[in-house]
Design goal:
- The protein is an all-alpha fold.
- Helix content is 74%, strand content 0%.
- The N and C termini lie far apart (64 Å).
Length: 205
Amino acid sequence: MNKFLIAGAVLLAMVIYAVSGYNGLQGADEQVKAGWSEVLNQYQRRADLVPNLVNTVKGAAAHEQDTLLAVTNARARATGISATPELINDPQAFNKFVAAQGELSSALSRLLVVAESYPDLKANTSFRDLQAQLEGTENRITVARNRYIQTVQAYNIKVRSFPANLIASFSGLAVRPNFAVADEKAVSTPPTVDFGTGNKAGTTK
């Protein structure tokens, strides 16, 4: 009888542990999805600013066609990638999306450098308002990316750890790709975008 009681207690403990581990993994998975949604939200906010920014610059610097076209094309490529929830499960698609966003960051940076050469443009109220909105959006992108990095790191540790990895495998949960960060400190600090002193606009990595 005692053997049956012990076996039953062990089995019950295993079941409780499995349920707890499963719930923990599901919770971590939901946090990753929520973090990714916030990253996408901030990238979309930036993309929405681009048309007005380009049109405003075009009005004062119409002959800067190459720079303006580069920004427009970069935005088209970035928004042309369908950022579905499944994208974060596909390293190749994830990296393609990240590269497209990086290209847009670079194109916007070059555009703002060009804008520094046009005093009338810098004095334009609409342009200055767009600059301020872009600065805030770049800061929010950096914060959202950093939170996502931390969330995915915590999730991946759970998925890789024994015996949680067995539960993860059974549940169809796999390691998620993450942003490649060369300088964690730089990503953790929102960039300073100073448009009024002639300095180059800061961008996220």
